[in-house]
Specification:
- 37% of the residues lie in helices and 16% in strands.
- α4 (68-74) packs parallel to α5 (91-97).
- It has helices at 7-20, 36-40, 56-60, 68-74, 91-97, 114-121, 132-135, 157-169; strands spanning 24-28, 47-50, 64-65, 77-81, 102-105, 126-129, 146-148.
Length: 171
Amino acid sequence: YLPYFEESLWKRFAQSSVAYGSRTMRISFRESPPRTGRCRGLRTNSFTYYSRTEKASAKEKGYKFLSLNDLLEQSEVVFCCLNKNTVLLHDEEFEKLGDKKILFNTGLSPAWDEKPFLKWLEGNNLCYCDTVGALGGAHLLVHKNVRCMQVSSGRTIQAFDRLSEKVLANL
């Protein structure tokens, strides 16, 4: 629900992100290829990502590697899945990202500097975070363009199973 977004932008995003492959990016340092596209039913030939290095496994699946600036300029939706205390979005990057965009962060900490992030939030933009830590603090929870569920997206049954296996293996 995005009442202040242009209706046509939201319709285009809603249609393309599920069925046709939105102009979507993922910022990630993981070795594994992006899984968001597979989970949402996106065509892999429309999925792009940025990482410190191009991943052969992602290329094999048809994911396209782009520079951070190119991805920010070309994307309508950005997923940040970075390691803790990794900050990639500064003044210049938010300028490249522009307005009428959606930013997701599921990292353990913000992927941005707070001052340019707050400036960016004042535009027609939305930020979704799973935890207050990913958002950058409780003071941001009341911002009209922030949605935070305050529950880690990593808290899955599979994660608990893996942790239980590790504990039992160390007994």
